[in-house]
User: What shape does this take?
Amino acid sequence: MSASATSTDNASSRNSHSSIHPVLKGLAGSLGGVAEACALQPMDVIKTRLQLDTAGQYRGIHHCGKTIIAEEEGIRGMWSGAFPTVLRNGTNQMCLFWAKSHADRILWDKHEGDGMQLTPVQSMASGFSAACLGPFVTGPFDVAKTRLMAQGKAQGTTPEYSGFFDVLVKVPAREGVLALWKGLLPRLLRIPPGQAIVWAVSDQITGYLERQAAEQASLE
Assistant: This one.
């Protein structure tokens, strides 16, 4: 066997072993999204309550959190809407990582671990395209999350929604099915451009590290 053939076989072997299936990348992204949602839910609840506080009930982050825990809902109130948030973040990240791998392959013939480095413009195009999928898939989760986090549960009051599935039933019944995708356009104007920037930077670093690894392997 010739030296060139051996080199090609070795390169192919390296690529096949270093490649990560898009489904596995999607699952990894999903687990990351779930962990993020569980850890940061209290701050998301506080942010939503402060944004909707037109009466000046809360004097800031600390006062808002203290009021929710001590006077309104208890510690569980800090995780209002946690279930749809976990579903939204986990599904959104899964879609993003899965779609990014496919976008790279379809648009630029870029495969995981092949040492090819995309240009920033190519990475932005792939990242933007991949990030468009999540908001469509997770729209109902996002609406349910916001409705549950926004409603207060002060003593003596009855919340409008009893839980995640109650939102999914009442919102379409009262406002139509498309109401489950309210806020879709702002999400599309925010998430895809942001991910385009993130992947433009990330791919440059990843591509550099892959080339370094490939050069190191060729010397062994």
In short: Helices lie at 3-18, 22-51, 61-72, 82-108, 120-131, 133-150, 164-175, 184-219. The radius of gyration is 23 Å.
